[in-house]
Amino acid sequence: MTAGRIICFLTDYGQADEFVGIVHRVIAGIDPGLPVIDITHQIPRHDVRAGALTLWRSAPWLGPGVILGVVDPGVGTRRRSVAFEVADANTTFVGPDNGLLLPAATRLGPITIAVELGTGEFGPVSGATDPRSRTGATFAGRDIFAPAAARLAMGTPIRALGPLVDPATLMGEPVPRPEPAVREGKPAVLAEVLWIDQFGNLQLNAGPDDVTNLGDASPVQAAPPHAAPPHAVPPHAVAVHAAGRTREARIVDAYGDLAPGELGLVIDSYGLLSISLNSASAAAVLVGVAAGTPVWLTQGAAGMAGAARPT
Amino acid sequence: MTAGRIICFLTDYGQADEFVGIVHRVIAGIDPGLPVIDITHQIPRHDVRAGALTLWRSAPWLGPGVILGVVDPGVGTRRRSVAFEVADANTTFVGPDNGLLLPAATRLGPITIAVELGTGEFGPVSGATDPRSRTGATFAGRDIFAPAAARLAMGTPIRALGPLVDPATLMGEPVPRPEPAVREGKPAVLAEVLWIDQFGNLQLNAGPDDVTNLGDASPVQAAPPHAAPPHAVPPHAVAVHAAGRTREARIVDAYGDLAPGELGLVIDSYGLLSISLNSASAAAVLVGVAAGTPVWLTQGAAGMAGAARPT
Amino acid sequence: MTAGRIICFLTDYGQADEFVGIVHRVIAGIDPGLPVIDITHQIPRHDVRAGALTLWRSAPWLGPGVILGVVDPGVGTRRRSVAFEVADANTTFVGPDNGLLLPAATRLGPITIAVELGTGEFGPVSGATDPRSRTGATFAGRDIFAPAAARLAMGTPIRALGPLVDPATLMGEPVPRPEPAVREGKPAVLAEVLWIDQFGNLQLNAGPDDVTNLGDASPVQAAPPHAAPPHAVPPHAVAVHAAGRTREARIVDAYGDLAPGELGLVIDSYGLLSISLNSASAAAVLVGVAAGTPVWLTQGAAGMAGAARPT
After folding, report:
1. What is the Cα–Cα distance from A207 to A198, expressed in whole angstroms?
2. Do residue A231 and residue C134 have CB atoms under 8 angstroms apart?
3. Of residues C129 and A41, which shows the higher confidence score?
4. Count of alpha carbons within 13 Å of C109, Cβ hemisphere only?
5. Which residues have a Cβ under 8 Å from the Cβ of A20 and sit 6 or more positions away?
6. Cα A121 to Cα C272: distance, rounded to the nearest angstrom
7. Cross-strand partners of A280
8. pLDDT above 70 (res A289)
9. How far is CA B196 from CA B39, B201, B242, B244, in A?
10. Distance CA B38, CA C234 (A)
11. Do A269 and C138 touch (CB under 8 A)?
12. Which of B114, C8, C109, C172 is the most buried (most CB within 10 A)?
């Protein structure tokens, strides 16, 4: 068995109903030997952006194989059902064409081929053994996406699953990459808040590698024993400009490395920076900062983390 | 590997405790290659009817194979542990003899053979490797049902698992089928509310095929693009008689097809009709209608959906 | 395939995030054929004791194979990552060295070999295919524990995974065993409350076999039809001495065997005694009794269950 046969499965179905189980059963009915891994089924109902970000940050660990994602507020409308491949990552995506899958895919590489599912001779199927199960509305996860994912995992060529569509017409935006910028005459990185977690940490779209060239690479503390290998950026001070204020922060590897009240840019286990406070909500302090807010990062002043000034 | 080896598993155990995992481990200890698919473990505690209806509506997608269901308020009483087979569907059911399994089974076909589990030489087993694990009360899922399900999935003949019992003595009632009837002198279908979901939709035991002969098959709108193949019934108007009132409704494929305030009979992805309002609770409007309430359906007046009169 | 290849997996990750799925994917990426069984992922966040007790009571049903447990409030500190083996049970444990795993392991037998994970040449790995995934903090479940568990399940010798450590230096205490004692001049067993469940039952570290020699083995009622085989202890009366009071109780196989108000020692499906009331909270009655409270059990007076006196 090869890893290319693995299906990773994410939805907003929840686990109280039988929907997740039925999708698993449809796949197993096509090939009981296919590994199907539940990433999560607790994406908030119909929250395409939350599902897209979860897949985006997980993507480097999910391939090669098939990524089956269903968060689908537009089911029953004219949105397309699609499958598309990122050849560089040997990974195929299956789901609604609504922006859920595109950010994860484009993180892994260019989309090399895309097809529309569920049309014409490739229309919905039913795994049902009982003729009474003829349905009105299509349960796309069960009738379109699961069969497609199973066949892709078994090695069916993607072009056998439906008519080709132009990858450029797929819905969704890549997660924005941080950009080089200039702020108050100094080299800067223009980042963005991706989301705010339940603890009030503000996850940025930038990692430590993105801030290595701000002019201050001098370590301000020794790396703790659990730090990543030397390719990681040494901790240093960064100034965070957002929502009209500038705040000093320190890049650290763990929340616990922060002193009380000290603002940090914590490098999380996905390699992304979170604006954080130790045991407190950074979001409550950074008034006016929300998902999508632009954030400029410039060289900071060592030892000043937590200090703030209007900008 | 064949689909007949697949075990579908439903309980009210929840997932906070280790019970679901231990049942999986017992099965894997007998044959680590058996696919075991979790349908749901969040059936409300001891709610046999909720579990039975979930299995009943899922049943066409769960076979062939073994369906292991445990919602068991009577554990430790004289209720029997059973396994029984529906030969037409190549599907075997394992669980308590309390009505949980019978509706799903009889939907698939007549029960062809049944045995009692856990008696005499077929008594409880323990997968435990530690002699301290000798137990007082039997954990039936672990000690009786899981071993039986595993052996059935491996191909052990059902009669090797316990003494035969008469299928006619199994507990439970089939989910009632809608019946032809006459209402106010017109052809009618007598249906029943199966359950009311969290959104206030009233799921009936009738599908669109059950209302094709009410005298009005004329479409009142074109089928939307996501509609099922032509064997599905075209949308038409139906009068809903329940709890002393008659209301006009329209059969549609999706909640979104209903206008605000318009009462609908939405065909869900199981092929059943739900009395529904778009973004509102139909149950709140149909005062006096509960699970089990009889509902008569007769030909409706196109364009009148939502109108109501005493009946 | 053999049962020794099975990985049982327990964490406090919850299932709303993608962490559980990513650990599964890392294991499947190493060998897609390894069975990985979720015991639970809903251990309360950072509650090492709750996780340890869950593993301890489940342990007899989880082996042989690999038990992967991660409840890790000390991640990022100097606590060790370890793997160790109980040769008697053909079971290997993988996780943080913080007391989570030791109680379950020592229940199964002496720890025969232990190694430290994640150091030097055995350092963290990354299953990521994307160079952007270089991380700051290590996600130990993904980068250290999952790869080690997979390799152990595949048959890699434990000493290939890291430097040997002395099993005697592993953190954690075995769950205390009940001890013979004397109370008010009579033979007694000194037990301890392990935990109080959500229903107010007080689970002891003693089973019915531990109280067979208190001097009263005479049954006070016939065994109900669902009782375990004859090796189980016949029901009898026990006096419970805890927090300064003595209460009479009766050993029964099910909560339902207790009369209203009658105090029971219910033998649960793990073979442990719980101080319980039928449909009421025993913890609310036994004021001052908490997890860790010592409890002496002596011969009781048949027919007096529920009676109490200062002790």
Report:
1. 21
2. yes
3. A41
4. 18
5. A9, A11, A13, A14, A38, A41, B38, B40
6. 60
7. A277
8. yes
9. 20, 6, 14, 19
10. 37
11. yes
12. C8
Contact B60, C47 (CB under 8 A): no
pLDDT at site C78: 75
Are C130 and A208 a contacting pair at CB < 8 A? no
Q: Which two tokens stand for residue C63?
A: 């082996």
C148: left (phi over 0), alpha (psi -120 to 50) or beta: alpha
- CA–CA dist C287, C284 (Å, integer): 6
Which has the closest alpha carbon to C141: C20, C41, C47? C20
Q: HSE of A205 in the Cβ direction (CA atoms, 13 Å)? A: 22
pLDDT at residue B228, as a whole number: 39
- Taking CB atoms and an 8 Å cut-off, how many pairs form between chains A and C? 119
Q: Is the peptide bond before B64 cis (omega within 30 degrees of 0)?
A: yes
Residue A44, C-beta contacts closer than 8 angstroms, at least 6 positions apart: A12, A50
Binary contact (B269, A137; C-beta < 8 A): yes
Choose the weakest-confidence range: A197-201, A206-210, A225-229, C11-15. Answer: A225-229
How far is residue A208's CA from residue C135's CA, in Å, rounded to a whole number? 9
Residues C56-89: tens digit of each pLDDT: 999 999 999 999 999 988 766 678 999 999 999 9
Residue contact B253–A76, C-beta within 8 A? yes
Note whether B32 contacts C: Cβ–Cβ < 8 A. Answer: yes
d(CA C140, CA C72): 9
**Half-sphere exposure for A171 (CA within 13 Å, toward CB):** 17
DSSP three-state, residue A52: helix
Q: Would you state the pLDDT for residue A121? A: 66
Reported as a single tens digit per residue, the pLDDT across A216-268 is 443 334 333 333 344 444 447 999 999 999 999 999 887 778 888 899 999 88
Residues in chain B: 311
Q: Does A227 touch chain C (CB under 8 A)?
A: yes
At C131-156, the pLDDT tens digits run 444 445 668 899 999 999 999 999 99
* Residue A133 predicted with pLDDT over 50: no
Cα distance between residue B257 and residue B305, in whole Å: 12
Residues of chain B with confidence (pLDDT) below 50: 129-135, 216-235
Residue B38 CA to residue B43 CA, distance in Å, equals 12
Residue whose tokens read 């109680």:
C103
The partner residues of C247 in beta bridges, in order of sequence, read C240, C308
Nearest Cα to A304, choosing from A220, A184, A185, A218?
A: A220
| Strand, helix or coil for residue C309 | strand
pLDDT bin (cut points 50, 70, 90) of residue C127 is low
pLDDT at C219: 37
Could you say which of B20, B33, B137 has the minimum Cβ distance to residue C267?
B137
If phi > 0 it is left, if psi is from -120 to 50 it is alpha, else beta; for residue B144 that is alpha
What beta strand segments (E) does chain A contain? 7-11, 36-40, 65-70, 81-86, 91-96, 113-117, 164-165, 179-183, 186-196, 202-204, 237-242, 245-252, 263-267, 273-277, 294-299, 308-310
This model of the complex carries an ipTM of 0.82
